[in-house]
Amino acid sequence: MKANISLLLLLCMCTWVCHAQSKMESISATLIGAKLGDVVILDDFLTMDFPKIAYDKAIIPGPQFMISDDPEYIRIPEAIVMQEQADAGAVRLYVYNVNGVKEPQKMPRKISAVIKNLGNEDMHLRMLRYSSQKPSMNYFQIGKQGLYDYFSSRETNNVRAIKPGEVIAIDERLEKQVVLYDELVHGFYEFVIDQPALISVLQTSPDKEGPKAFHEIDTIIPFSHVNAGRGIFPVSNYKIKGRDTIDTNNGVSQLILADGNDDAWITGTIGEKKEFARNVGNYGVLYHTNIKWKSTGGKGLALITWNCRSEDNQWCGGMGLTMEMFDENMKKSVIQYPSDQLVTKAAPEAILIGVYKPDPSKDIQEINFTYSPPGASCLPTPLILVPIDL
């Protein structure tokens, strides 16, 4: 009797192993046959239970970072929604606001970011990276394209002089844009200033210049600690380094960033009173990532992601992102994912981000990319490494 039970268990185990092997062969064939950036269908595969890749996270010196996303929907026709003082030096500014005016009626608005020179000498503002999207209700497209433009941008000779006490618009393109009800304004900037400054994001009428509105508006909307948040933050860049070398023989693993648990939200302050601020999502933060891997038996690795939050609520129904990818020579490519459609929706859909082939001349190889949490998408966006037969 015991022998029969043992034989039955052995047969069940062999059946399970054969099924799992066949499943991975099917997954491997699907990923090898797809184009980079495509949405692929991986039936009965995607889960949040894959082993997590352990990593070390170090702060990289970077710009003062400001975000304007509290409130996300600006309900007051004339108001300031973010106002922070910046020291001379580098600044990163992320504007993510929507015209949400319904009372006394829906109306077109202007949402603009302005800067005031608080110094005693002329201030020079030199734009380093610039991303400005036309206001739209297609939030996913704006989020993907905004990151794409930011990663791709390299501004040269873009310097403006600002007299002491003078106020100018940071983004002259936004000054010309009309924002209809429920349309999103998405601006992502990095610049250097040589005097202390006051930076504000405001909403006003389309026919009024942002700097003029700044002098006339006396309402700063109180923060509510919802959405991503707002304020000024001392952390803007991280270096992510895997602790162990990924071996293709060890199966599937995943890197989880910007989840608020393994990777905590950055904190800072809001306004003159320096009240506590948190960037829920770490939107606008750059993760410079390095993972080492080795091939066993000639296997390669596929890097994929999927929308693990699709069933949580109506806002999580789609996910799209943009990343900086680096090849073995550290040559950069900026790629929107997915590339064959706007977003991926839910399992069994996944996005093929990259395929890494073994180099017989190297025992250890590297995967390098820059990730930033994609605006309009729910987090986290798991980055999954799948061993594949090439």
From TrEMBL:
Organism: Sphingobacterium arenae
Keyword Signal tagged: yes
Keywords: Signal
Protein name per UniProt: Copper amine oxidase
Signal peptide annotation: 1-20
